């Protein structure tokens, strides 16, 4: 039976790499559409600023090169974001009950209109 409360730091290296890779692809999609505000509300702007500077400096990379490069060079910052957001994972490194896009939609829906 799987532990329902696995955090990013509880995962083994392979599962953590899976979790980080999934998140990096989610992050890059939202970076391209300039809508990372929900993540910034988790007080991880220090990490996001450094990550975003790396992405901006390497926009000439292909999407796969950019994902691999930002993960290799900013892994600790992505881990800090995932620790702060603190969602549960499966032992394989997938989010436990939803996807990153599903989580984002839930967060977006929870924002009061006009704020």
Describe the protein in words.
- With 115 residues, the protein is mostly helical.
- It has five helices and no strands.
- Helix 1 crosses helix 4 and helix 3 packs antiparallel against helix 4.
- The longest helix has 23 residues.
- It is globular.
- The model has no long low-confidence stretch (mean pLDDT 91).
Features:
115 residues, mainly alpha, globular
Largest sheet: none
Tell me the strand percentage band.
Answer: under 5%
Shape field: globular
Low-confidence stretches: none
Rg, Å, rounded: 14 Å
Secondary structure: helix percent: 55-70%
- Compute the average pLDDT: 91
Structural class: mainly alpha
**Count of DSSP H/I helices:** 5
Strand element count: 0
Q: Span from first to last CA?
A: 42 Å
Secondary-structure element string: HHHHH
Topology:
Layout: H1 13-32, H2 37-40, H3 45-57, H4 63-85, H5 100-109
Quick structural gist:
The chain has 115 residues and is mainly α. The chain has helices at residues 13-32, 37-40, 45-57, 63-85, 100-109. The chain has five helices and no strands.
């Amino acid at each position: 039976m799987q532990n329902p409360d696995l955090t990013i730091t509880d995962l083994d290296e392979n599962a953590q790499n899976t979790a980080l890779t999934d998140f990096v692809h989610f992050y890059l999609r939202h970076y391209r559409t300039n809508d990372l505000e929900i993540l910034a509300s988790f007080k991880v702007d220090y990490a996001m600023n450094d990550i975003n500077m790396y992405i901006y400096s390497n926009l000439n990379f292909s999407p796969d090169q950019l994902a691999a490069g930002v993960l290799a060079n900013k892994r600790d910052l992505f881990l800090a974001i995932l620790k702060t957001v603190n969602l549960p994972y499966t032992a394989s490194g997938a989010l436990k009950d939803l996807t990153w896009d599903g989580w984002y939609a839930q967060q977006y829906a929870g924002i009061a209109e006009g704020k």
